[in-house]
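Example record

The entry below shows one chain as it appears in the dataset: sequence first, then structure tokens.
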Amino acid sequence: MSEDVLIDLGRRAMLVTLMVSAPMLVSGMVIGLVISIFQSVTQIQEITLTFVPKIVVVMTTFLLFLPWMISLLLGFAQPMLGDFGTFVN
């Protein structure tokens, strides 16, 4: 396997990883910002107020985006496993 193929494979793997994790990370960041603003305005500093909504939103986002994430991962893995002989040589 040449260096160019290996670099391209690593680049695509990192891009797929970023795209698969992006919906949960962005939703967690947005709900964290909203909760932080709410806590600042109301001066409520309850620790469970930050974690419970984040967990609920991230899990909901995960379930909503799961079909898309699976298709993205399969689109990356199937060609790679189909051409496994070219990677071994």
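Notes for this example: The chain has a mean pLDDT of 90. The first helix runs from residue 3 to 42.
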